[in-house]
Amino acid sequence: MGNPKAFLTIARKEAGYRPIHDRIHDFSEVEQTLNSNDRRQQASRCMDCGVPFCHWACPLGNKPPEWNDALYKGDWELAYRLLNATNDFPEFTGRICPALCEKACVLNLMDHEPTTNREDEAAITEHAFQENYVRVEIPQRNGMSVAVIGAGPAGLVAANQLNRKGYTVTVFDKNEAAGGLLRYGIPNFKLGKNVIDRRIKVLEEEGIVFKYGCDIDCAKLPEGFDAYIIATGTPTARDLKVPGRELKGVYLALEMLAQQNRVLAGMEFKRDELVNAKGKDVLVIGGGDTGSDCIGTAHRQGCKSVTQIEIMPKPVEGPEDPKNPWPEWPRTLKTTSSHEEGCVRRWNINTLEFLGKDGKLTGVKVQEITWKPNPEGGRPIMEPVGKPQIIKAEIVLLAMGFLKPEHPQYPENVFLAGDAQSGASLVVRAMASGRKVACHVDKFLKDKKSRD
Q: Full-prediction pTM beyond 0.85?
């Protein structure tokens, strides 16, 4: 490392967010960036550990010590080459990854000021695009073809890897553009869709064929390909079947998020089709990232108020969770940019009934609960506390996760990737799965060719 003691004198410095009064009026990315000098100083804080836990913790096997060192020394192109060697699309993870590497950073374990790996990653990649380090490379074809069903992060990574190996790759997707949940689930204020479009253009120039509006039945895959990768994600959201579910105003989270992203892309909807929070009291059920995205979107649509409820207990406040210590993921309270914009947050709340008048939602009956240990082991027992309460709401957004899809027995040349294989998980894990599956497909087809 150029400066192995920088962490002793240079404090962690994050770029931070745009001011709340400014950002809630548009859907532009909320995160700011540091100037190049500050960014290089932040990269210098990496200690180049003898055992780099960051590398171990990253599903992609990224090597922050190597590309942070290159960044600190001002070699942005080398930094990008090192980063891109393990991460196909660091412009995505640099914006939306929860940075497992930072939670594993020794500086985090020592004083909770890890190296700013995620922000460094984003900065390196943006610099690479600006300086044309991201070059179109068309490989020599090997005469075999692969179909990828689903253009989400797993499918895109698998397609990219196989294309580089010389396969003719065709990507089918049911939507009108590529990206999957990157495009239709994550709001623009976290990931601008121009970032996706920029990368798709490179993939197209390198020879990958994209076919949109193709809702493929995985039991009847398109003919003419040597292998298939099913990367259709987890399309079924977890619903809440309580009385009043049929009322107008109760929506799955993606009904709002996907529609808002489409509106921003220029698509038009009829007035009675719009899921819009303007002037309304909003209740978000679910305490994860999708729920947070609903909060930020509701604010930008002009909501009157937002309340978020979660059936599980409130996480520990602070950087450490004594019940879930290193090397496990710290289950601590997370406050996102959307929460900062204004939100009443409540935990240990169970939803009993959606209330309405003339077919329209007016409120939600909820019950405060507590969790008791199960004497027989297994899931704790939920017990009510006090009397039911009513939360006023004209819109409810259900953000309770997704159901793991079930698949039939496929032929030996059909492979699963990403959430379609594992169930809902992180984008970075889906991308890692795409790389792994691409290797399996490559080995399978080469073995088959040698046998033939």
A: yes
